[in-house]
Amino acid sequence: MMRVEEISRRGFLAAGAASVALVGVGGFGAVTKQADAAFVRPPGAASGAELVASCDRCQKCLQACPYGIVTPVPLAESLVAYGTPTIAYEHGFCDFCMKCVDACPTGALAYGGLAERDMGVAVVVRDACVAWDWAGCTVCKEECPVEGAITLDEQDRPVVHPDYCDGCGKCEQVCPSASLRAYDASVENKGIVVVSRASVAAHASGSIGSEELQTGRFARAGEALAPHTKGVHPDGPDATREAGGAA
Ligand code: SF4
Ligand code: SF4
Ligand code: SF4
């Protein structure tokens, strides 16, 4: 099993600044180079280039999501993927209701395949995670709806298991890092965040650094980690499968 490497908050901040600078200096030419970026996508999304080709930017998936977590890729992040759906977990988490898939008229989001119940994978930001940087927080582990996706190590620090995690984002939404550490104004990120599996694979192969892994939830695409095969999300399509319904 591949272990997702935890990343540093300082890397997160540096990468964010670098991205802004990239766009500022290179303009559209710079963002065009990000055509192969791998974003966190709604359930059932075709792989990067396929989704970009099949999505007509109608935004019906955005309108259908009851939690408002589906948002369009901003122009500053990719000219090619501009307007296609990505996920903003700060607004909520995905319970795999599949309303976005039902609303999609083009098949860019569709049933079938492992992506139907896999959006990405959570990674721990060690410098921002209270448990890793200090001690005493197990909120993400307690709130994760998928048994086995987060375990605690011998020092009660969260460890994500990518073969169980489906990228639902509940851990990121409930992470109290910023409020628990409000005394430190430099801490503004979550201690655990969801990124695409392609981003994690690109990081593992060395084609992107830790600094880039977390930038805007996208990175240059590498060969993606396989979606999880073991996690069972209680509200998602798995529940239907478990009950003997349609696969
Ligand atoms: S499956 Fe439901 S909760 Fe998840 S992104 Fe789609 S509409 Fe939103
Ligand atoms: S509903 Fe389908 S075609 Fe429309 S923006 Fe969403 S993914 Fe693209
Ligand atoms: S993204 Fe969802 S399944 Fe994965 S660790 Fe977080 S809460 Fe658990």
UniProtKB/TrEMBL annotation:
Q: What are its cofactors?
A: [4Fe-4S] cluster
Alphabetically ordered keywords of this record: 4Fe-4S, Iron, Iron-sulfur, Metal-binding
Q: Which PROSITE patterns match?
A: 4FE4S_FER_1, 4FE4S_FER_2, TAT
The annotated regions of Basic and acidic residues compositional bias extend over 232-241
Annotated Pfam families: Fer4, Fer4_9
The keyword 4Fe-4S belongs to this UniProt entry's keyword annotation: yes
Q: Which NCBIfam families match?
A: TAT_signal_seq
Q: What is this protein called?
A: 4Fe-4S dicluster domain-containing protein
Instruction: Please report the organism this UniProt entry assigns to the protein.
Output: Eggerthella guodeyinii
